[in-house]
Specification:
Blueprint lengths: L3 E5 L7 H9 L4 E8 L6 E9 L2 H11 L3 E2 L2 E2 L1 E4 L16
């Protein structure tokens, strides 16, 4: 069990401080990051929370997965490791 959690199906009105407060009821939140659109700055409806211990992370999953957040059932589970991405690149003109 890892300490990093994926949190999805969030309302676009969610803020990092609101999310951190919700999860702090299950333990110590070490970091909270909402993913936002790079151009508009609007939330994409998901984020990542890092809890202090594995036990606190599991408690947060058990307590919050499927609970209502402004009319939407939150999805909370262990975050999967980020996949390596190949360096893309726009092709130049020859």
């Amino acid at each position: 069990m890892g300490r990093k959690l994926y949190v999805g199906n969030l309302p676009y009105s969610a803020t990092e401080s609101d999310l951190s407060e919700k999860f702090s009821e299950s333990g110590t939140v070490e970091s909270c990051k909402l993913i936002t659109d790079r151009d508009t700055g609007q939330s994409k409806g998901f984020g990542f929370i890092e809890m202090a211990t594995d036990g606190e992370a599991q408690a947060a999953i058990d307590r919050l997965n499927g609970t209502d957040y402004d009319g939407r059932p939150m999805k909370v589970n262990e975050a999967k490791p980020q996949e390596k991405r190949s360096g893309g690149g726009g092709g130049g003109r020859w």
